[in-house]
Amino acid sequence: ARLSPAGGLTYTVGVSEYAIGIDLGGTNLRVGAFQPNGAKLERFAAPTNIQAGREAVLDTIVRGVDQVRAAHPGGTLLGIGIGVPGFIHLESGVITKSPNLPGLEHFPMRDELRRRAGCRVVLDTRVDFAQEAELFADDPNLGATTSTRLPALSA
Questions:
Q1: Which residues in the chain belong to E strands, given as ranges?
Q2: What is the reported pTM?
Q3: pLDDT digits (tens, 9 = 90+) for 112-140
């Protein structure tokens, strides 16, 4: 057990496989580690600070990924899912239009994050990821029985 930033205790017990989910918004960035059943393991949050430029945003994302990975050194990272506001080209992993993230438009976000993190990355819109998260919240057994993105990261 260890003290969490919020002042409570955080327990990590028998974590073997997990995935990282990233919510990249124009104002805030949130990174979380989750087990395939949807259980939250770790969390990181920071301002997006898009005004500082693309490299600063990417550095903050990688810092968050590294922090949640470091909390589970014996675990197996299945991959990263990143949800962004706006329009993306799924095949190329490029954000094509995002009023909230203008410095990231026409940038190969998926491939750059894959290069920096060294694992599989899935890029999608926040709307699509949010819909799947709502399904998780409504049925805690969904992670083990359907083709949601979290288990799909290991495919």
A1: 2-3, 9-10, 17-24, 28-34, 40-47, 76-84, 87-89, 94-97, 121-125
A2: 0.74
A3: 999 999 999 988 886 555 445 444 444 44
